[in-house]
Amino acid sequence: TMGFFGVDQKSLDYLLQTGRSRETVANVEAYLRAQGMFQLYGATEPEYSGDVMELDLATIEPCVSGPKRPHDRVAVSELPRDFAVGLSTPSTSFKGFNVDKAEQGRAKKFSYKGKDYSLEHGSVVLAAITSCTNTSNPGVMLGAGLLARNARDKGSRCL
């Protein structure tokens, strides 16, 4: 399955904002225009070979992946129930974490930059380092590596 959204001026702006040189962006634009692939709004609709599927974006249900594998889709509307079930399910299950009932309400308190925080099972924390993010920008790739190293040094571990 694949979705295609044409490259437009906003796409070129993104390339500039993420450190690509003006020369590189000009070459990208020239190539796309020569191939008839640059999206000019108000112009004729692009022609595609093969099947074209219309998609009403309002029908898309927000979802997240995981908790252990990126291809395990969970609808956001089902997330609280799905999480609660997985928390006490045996860890041999693909969504199980085998957390004892007595431990499920436990919180870890800590201070960071003068503020007090508390994390417990179910707290939402961004801790993902994904390949598509990394490869689009070398600076982000370096930052992701440093983040991973520092997290490991502070005791984080992969599940």
TrEMBL record:
<dbReference type="InterPro" id="IPR001030">
    <property type="entry name" value="Acoase/IPM_deHydtase_lsu_aba"/>
</dbReference>
<keyword id="KW-0408">Iron</keyword>
<dbReference type="InterPro" id="IPR006249">
    <property type="entry name" value="Aconitase/IRP2"/>
</dbReference>
<dbReference type="InterPro" id="IPR015931">
    <property type="entry name" value="Acnase/IPM_dHydase_lsu_aba_1/3"/>
</dbReference>
<protein>
    <recommendedName>
        <fullName>Aconitase/3-isopropylmalate dehydratase large subunit alpha/beta/alpha domain-containing protein</fullName>
    </recommendedName>
</protein>
<feature type="domain" description="Aconitase/3-isopropylmalate dehydratase large subunit alpha/beta/alpha">
    <location>
        <begin position="1"/>
        <end position="157"/>
    </location>
</feature>
<keyword id="KW-0479">Metal-binding</keyword>
<dbReference type="Pfam" id="PF00330">
    <property type="entry name" value="Aconitase"/>
</dbReference>
<dbReference type="InterPro" id="IPR036008">
    <property type="entry name" value="Aconitase_4Fe-4S_dom"/>
</dbReference>
<dbReference type="InterPro" id="IPR018136">
    <property type="entry name" value="Aconitase_4Fe-4S_BS"/>
</dbReference>
<keyword id="KW-0411">Iron-sulfur</keyword>
<dbReference type="GO" id="GO:0051536">
    <property type="term" value="F:iron-sulfur cluster binding"/>
</dbReference>
<dbReference type="GO" id="GO:0046872">
    <property type="term" value="F:metal ion binding"/>
</dbReference>
